[in-house]
Amino acid sequence: MYFETFTELWQMAGHGPFVWSSYAITYLVWFLLIMVPIRQLSRQKRRIRARCEALSQREVNDGDAS
Amino acid sequence: MAWTWFHRLGSPPWIYAFAGRLLRFLLPLTLLLLLVGSIWGLAFSPPDFRQGNSYRIIYIHVPVSVVSLAGYYVMAIAGAVSLIWRLKVADIAMRVAAPIGAGLTFLALVTGAIWGKPTWGTWWVWDARITSMVVLLFLYLGVYALYEAYDNKALASKACAILALVGTVNIPIIYKSVDWWYSLHQPASIKFTGGTTIDPSMLYPLLLMIVAVYALYVCLILLGLRAALLESENKTKWVQQEVME
User: Looking at the complex, does the CB of residue A56 fall below 8 Å from at least one CB of chain B?
Assistant: First the structure.
């Protein structure tokens, strides 16, 4: 490691707040960009599955009635 | 036979399955590359003799800037393919690329502003490079907003594709802005022709981060494609089979 201690790494001779905030914002945006489609996909899957199950249940009920 | 791959690219079930298979190893690999590149740049590369440690922002600022520009071409090419061949997958890819590109351009602007404060003494200047990057952000947001604004989605796709294609004129302006106008922004440190003005100890982690952010871009497009394909094809048999498995 270039820095002697973790405190030096954190402070970066006064540039720490600039460097660490840049990385924090970047990783936060990357995290959101990854999570939004993943959550969207699982929400869609749940909705489609519920619709398919409701449809097959209705078919069973219609079969019983006839 | 040689064109089979091209026809496959137009098939939503094939793209959905292919993207899923690719993501299974590409996403963990990308996260690993990002982690290694960030730690290398933050803790192991030496400080710049003039800028000190603030230059370490380069390891995110340059990769997100480069990929935000390349991403615009991806969006414009997808728009052109959707306009010419009416491929549904291309239309979806164009729509998916807009918010991803906007996110990366936003990061390029924010990390640039944070880097500007200790280096230039100011968060912001309206110089050619920065202003043309703001235009890029508005182009990405414009494509996204334009699609949402139309009720007729076929018309919306055409309008978005045209806007994306017209906007490509901004990309060479961004690339050349530091050469064409007097600018606070430094010229490119990595050059394909001529000498690269960056020491290998700083260059290698930077190249690693550029590769990692390109890989991240591919992952984001694939994730977005899968979510959007499932939504737009939700009444088809293949989606129902896929979900009920």
Answer: no
Report ipTM for this prediction.
0.91
Of B103, B117, B239, the CB nearest to A18: B117
A15·B43 Cβ contact <8 A: no
pLDDT in tens, B17-27: 999 999 999 99
DSSP SS3 for A2: coil
Q: What is the mean pLDDT of residues B176-200?
A: 72
Q: Show Cβ contacts of residue B231 under 8 Å, excluding neighbours closer than 6 positions.
A: A40, A44
* 3-state SS assignment for residue B49: coil
B240/B233 Cα distance (integer angstroms): 9
CB–CB contact B243 A49 (8 Å): yes
Integer CA distances (angstroms), A42 to A25, A45, A51, B172, in order: 26, 5, 14, 39
Where in chain B are the domains?
22-244
